[in-house]
Write a structure and sequence with these properties.
- The complex is a heterodimer of chains A (256) and B (392).
- Helix content of chain A is 78%, strand content 0%.
- Chain A has 256 residues and is mostly helical.
- In chain A, helix 4 packs parallel to helix 7.
- By secondary structure, chain B is an alpha/beta fold.
- Chain B is elongated and about 80 Å long.
- Classes of the chains: A mainly alpha (256), B alpha/beta (392).
- Chains A and B meet through helix 8 and helix 9 of A and helix 2 and helix 4 of B.
Amino acid sequence: MTTVVADASTAGPTRAERLRLLIQPVLVLVVGAAVVFWAFDRDLTATQQENINAANVSQLIWQHLLITIAVTVIVLLVGVPLGVLVTRPGVNRLRPFVVGAANVGQAAPAIGLLVLLFLLTAKTGFWIGVLPIALYSLLPVLSSTILGLTEVDRALIDAGNGQGMSRGSLLLRVELPLAVPYILAGLRTSLVLAVGTATLSFLVNAGGLGILIDTGYKLQDDVTLILGSVLAVCLALLVDWFGGLAEFFLAPKGLR
Amino acid sequence: MTIQSAKSGPTGVRIQLDHVSKVYPGSTQPAVDDVSLEIPAGEIVVFVGPSGCGKTTTMRMINRLSEPTSGKILIGDKDALSIKPTELRRSIGYSIQQAGLFPHMTIRHNVGLVPGLLKWDRKKIDARVDELLDLVGLDPGQYADRYPRQLSGGQQQRVGVARALAADPPVLLMDEPFGAVDPITRSSLQDELLRLQTELGKTIVFVTHDFGEAVKLGDRIAVLGQKSAVLQYDTPQAILANPADDTVAGFVGTGASLRQLGLMRVKDVELRPHPSVHVDDDVDTARNALAGSEFDWAVVLDSRDRPVSWIRANRLAHARDVASVAEPLDVVSTQSTLEDALEAILAESHASAVVAGPGSRYVGVVTLETLIEAVTTARADAGAKPTGHGAP
């Protein structure tokens, strides 16, 4: 079995990739623990203590994660079905428009999207933060779904049709499973985009580690600034690691 | 739909193509132009022709992977165009080049796919998968839970055939199924298919561009030209002996006579008698047996009249007993092809193929003259009867 895994060149992770999957979480934990220890272990002013305390920091991390999770769910729920739709015969004329829209979403600065939605709705809060980030992170999942589905060997579709599979079961049992490695790769990119952009969501009062960075910057308080930035970086690496794990374990077995 | 594999007689049904044409959208020329063919129940019919002649399209119209533009297709007594495509296809086995197995499914799931679509219960599917893997020569315990990637090309192709047979369909469509494997594997897969077919008696439509494969597998061959025009539709023997026109002759190519020898069996020709002695006969008896004949060598038989070796007359002169001067012998059986016999003739310095009949007993020899006669007769027979064009 091990040789089979190592030999797989198309879908399985490479050696370097697997090594990275081992080292990355360790690095994140070490750096994260170090910065937390460094920040909490000094004489903090009263203003600093308002931001740097266990309850506040863990709440901000939690908010940041919630935004990321919400974005992931939205991106999957929108990106995959949309990718499926525009690869169906007859509907694929819509493909340039859909991909174009997603391209615009990614090309536009995330901060612009956030502010625009705020101006349009005149509201703030969790969803006003989540929706623009979801639009911003949609493209990788959408385009990898399209790629994954178009890469499915025509002979396999022919074999499925020839055996009397309906279009629905062909999609669910053959096309999508074979596209899973591509979709997961796209999702990993989307996740990293989402967790990075979530630092901007404080602008519309949706919380996240951006608050620490913003406060630190405005008060010229390096400790708060550094704590916020390093934690955001660690979170991004951690999320990326989860994406890598998903690619490793969720890809269909027979493909590696 | 019962689980069976040893039913006697054909389980296949007749297929009729009636003035079938196919024009692809956006094309002015038809890909298949007014083809009529009758494929008898339980036979292997091979569509053979150059690439792009429309033979695959013609086959794909039978299970409606390609919809005919006009014409009628009957499978058994049913109009294929009146059955829902997915249902029609579940009742027709389909096997393609490089097997087309789903790489993310185990062998068990690949083979059990169509029974699953037909809503068989789990236990019945599992039993059927085991039975089929056995049938195509793969040990279920060893292979059922592997993924296609872990099998060789030949093994994958066997699984492809097992999958096509899964729901015991009366009809099998095979599109160059052995095109992507090496020649040795291909030959053994072909033998395997012929063995299966004697057990199963399906109606098989087989597409290939390899005329040798067509001759080996086909009960009948349809030689197709441009737009799938039927140039000749007949038995391999008849096509080899008497190609309908120059195009067919060109496709048959050189070596037609050799191929014909591959189709005829030793039992179909008249064997020549040849002197024989027993291995425990004394030398004088042996000398007398040869002296009374026109030959300078004799077949040596064992106590149960089985040919085991041969002796030359000139070596017998100084011998103490028969066994000490006997030389080893390759024997062909009455079931062997004349091609095998030719091989034996060329290999032996006495220029004959010694034939063993029922019970491996000696029945006579085949010589070069026998072979020449056989080919000449076959050609004359084929020339005498009108060549089948279209329906036989």
